Amino acid sequence: MIVNEYKAGREFVGRLDYGSDLFLSLLSLVREKDIETGVVEVIGACKKSVVAIYDQDKKVYHNVALEGPLEILSCTGNISKIDGKPALHLHIVLSNHEGSAFGGHVVEGTEVFAGEFYIRELLGPTLERKRDEVTGLNLWG
Amino acid sequence: MIVNEYKAGREFVGRLDYGSDLFLSLLSLVREKDIETGVVEVIGACKKSVVAIYDQDKKVYHNVALEGPLEILSCTGNISKIDGKPALHLHIVLSNHEGSAFGGHVVEGTEVFAGEFYIRELLGPTLERKRDEVTGLNLWG
Amino acid sequence: MIVNEYKAGREFVGRLDYGSDLFLSLLSLVREKDIETGVVEVIGACKKSVVAIYDQDKKVYHNVALEGPLEILSCTGNISKIDGKPALHLHIVLSNHEGSAFGGHVVEGTEVFAGEFYIRELLGPTLERKRDEVTGLNLWG
After folding, report:
1. What beta strand segments (E) does chain A contain?
2. Of the partner residues C8, C53, C134, the one whose CB lies closest to the CB of residue B8
3. Distance between CA atoms of A141 and C14, rounded to whole angstroms?
4. Sign of the torsion formed by the C-alpha atoms of B40, C22, A99 and A55
5. Which superkingdom heads the taxonomic lineage of this protein's source (chains A, B, C) (predicted)?
6. Which of B139, C103, B91, C104 is nearest to A43 (CA)?
7. Is the complex ipTM higher than 0.95?
8. Strand residue runs (E) in chain C
């Protein structure tokens, strides 16, 4: 197990733009603010979404397109580094018009209808993602 | 994009009363403690729930009644202000007796069986909700 | 309602081992670090999972076995004490290969494929779980 200890950094609350891409907007913000490590939360709604699900045997993600409108019930994850740049790892839970829930790994393709985020920066050891041979994922090594 | 920076405020952990209304209890607490900005998390179980789903075309919420018992798998959101008073924006994920997940925007109607909350106050710029013409929602402007 | 106020404690970010048990690994970490009160978040993926759903009438949990692979969309909860030792209360949301979401109360039986956690310690009043007669659950009393 890897266990790092951190001190409190900056904290941000804000609103994503209508029509923006959830993942790209947050990634852009994280890089602009130069947040190396942190945690993220988002709630809101989107017009449509694409989530990725990992095939643990084949070691590839496949995308699932979810037609909207959808509520963003939960979207949580973390900020660390990959190739020396801030990277975002987010998982999302969405619901359709009947309330049924779906979700996966957040990739490009979630079009924001309304989005409210909370970002908490953590100061301490750098967490750098590298390809892990066992899982095929980019994990902290 | 709106991006505000905050400093750490008070932090609360506690238990909601059996039979109380999830949304009204938390809103009442937030107003009593005069928390202007913050984030909220809840887990627990409820006897029944009503969640709201936004119709992005018609710009109205419709309610979905979920018969219980239900586990509260996740309930996250934020505190900001509306008409000068603390307001709560929460989204919830619930599961039925088979583990299937459902959810939406939290409104009055979720009857607590057991509920454990975490509230983190943030000190900084006031976030005030106002009607947004594009979406029809009360958003930070 | 029980409402306690806390001060910020230590914060940890880390990675769970491949093949480890989600609940037992985190519980072991929490006890090793002697975290009395706090909040926890995890995202990742698992090979399979067992979640518990509470039967509010019969006052017993029943387990639902979820065959993997599954994404861990959200896993949030808290740390308090039971019988004088740190205890973990976590709820999880998972998705299958189609993105459909399921979840429940986390017990032993969720086999980690990849897991990234955030733990935030809170310093203040001890929260001790004791059997609550009304619900049959171990709640803060």
Report:
1. 2-16, 38-55, 60-82, 85-95, 101-106, 111-123, 128-131, 138-140
2. C8
3. 10
4. positive
5. Bacteria
6. B91
7. yes
8. 2-16, 38-55, 60-82, 85-95, 101-106, 111-123, 128-131, 138-140
CA gap B8, A21 in Å, rounded:
29
Q: Decide if B2 touches A, using CB distance below 8 A.
A: yes
**Mean pLDDT across the stretch A65-69?**
95
**Cβ-based burial of C11 (10 A; exposed 0-12, middle 13-18, buried ≥19):** buried
What's the pLDDT band for A70 if we cut at 50, 70, 90? very high
Neighbours of B126 (CB within 10 A): 11
Of residues A5, A54, A101, nearest to C69 (C-beta) = A54
Spatial separation of the C-alpha atoms in residues B74 and B103, rounded to whole Å:
9
Task: Give the helix ranges, DSSP H, for chain A.
Answer: 22-32
Give burial (CB, 10 Å; 0-12/13-18/19+) of B47: middle
CA angle at B56 for the pair B50 and B60, rounded to the nearest 5°: 50
Smallest CA–CA distance, residue B31 to chain A, in Å, is 20
Taking CA atoms, what residue in C is nearest to A42? C74
Task: Give the model confidence (pLDDT) of C26-45 as tens digits.
Answer: 999 999 999 999 999 999 99
Q: Kindly indicate the confidence band of residue A36, based on its pLDDT and cuts at 50, 70 and 90.
A: very high
Q: Is B49 on the interface with C (CB under 8 A)?
A: no
Q: What is the pLDDT of residues C96-126, one digit of tens each?
A: 999 999 999 999 999 999 999 999 999 999 9
Region B29-44: mean pLDDT is 98
- Domains along chain C with CATH numbers: 10-140 (3.30.1330.80)
Which residue among C11, C47, C95 places its CB closest to the CB of A5? C11
Distance of CA C91 to the CA centre of its chain: 5
- What is the average per-residue pLDDT within C86-94? 98
Residues of B in contact with A29 (CB under 8 A): 1, 3
Q: Which chains touch A (3 or more CB pairs under 8 A)?
A: B, C
Measured between CB atoms, does A95 come within 8 Å of chain B?
yes
